[in-house]
Amino acid sequence: MTEQLLSMVTQYGPPALFAIVGIAAIGVPLPVTLLLIVVGSMVSQGAMDIWLALAMASVGSILGDQAGYAIGRFGGTAAVEKLSRVFGKKAGLEETQAKVRAWGGPGIFLTRWLLSPLGPWINLASGTAGYPWHRFLFWDVLGECTGALVYISLGRIFSDRVLALDSVLGDTTWAIGALMLASILGWQLWKRLVRQP
């Protein structure tokens, strides 16, 4: 599938990039990080304009995120459950809603680019939890623009080492996610131990 997506972006350019990142933001598991790095490589070779690439990646992702938020907000838990079955994943909605409440805006920001596998579920949970839309939009725009800039720039800088860079970033993302989870669990355990007489 990755080769097909890369071929679409090579053939159709920015409109294909816009569509792919938008669909991924709704929850379809697509290799967007690798795609943005490859787009950066294309920019360095003069095959795509950097400003157009940044705009298409950012706007496509933001619109996809807004669709996910709207599904959660107006479709409620029933719509989220259906989406979970369609994409073959269990959403863990109550747990994700708790994360949205605990992390707030910075959590939304980080799941746009650093912990991107969580992004679509945070979108849905933000909607079902009633997280204020204007705040969601602010953090979403900030995060998606940051993500597009970071990954396209990395692809542009490391144009000849795209696959190696993607592998390193994937490992780093999971390590950061595990560290954050361990920190949260440690904090919760410490709070419980302090409360006990």
- Helix-and-strand structural type: mainly alpha
Helix content range of the residues, please?
over 70%
Percent of residues in beta strands = under 5%
Distance between the termini: 56 Å
Radius of gyration: 18 Å
**In total, how many beta strands?**
0
Total number of helices: 8
Secondary-structure element pattern, one letter each: HHHHHHHH
| Poorly predicted regions | none
Which shape, going by the Cα principal axes? globular
Taking the sheet with the most strands, its summary is: none
Overall tally of domains: 1
Mean pLDDT across every amino acid position: 84
What does this structure look like?
It is a single chain. With 197 residues, the protein is mainly α. It has one domain. Helices cover 83% and strands 0% of the residues. The chain has eight helices and no strands. Helix 1 packs antiparallel against helix 2, helix 3 crosses helix 8 and helix 4 packs across helix 7. The longest helix has 37 residues. The N and C termini lie far apart (56 Å).
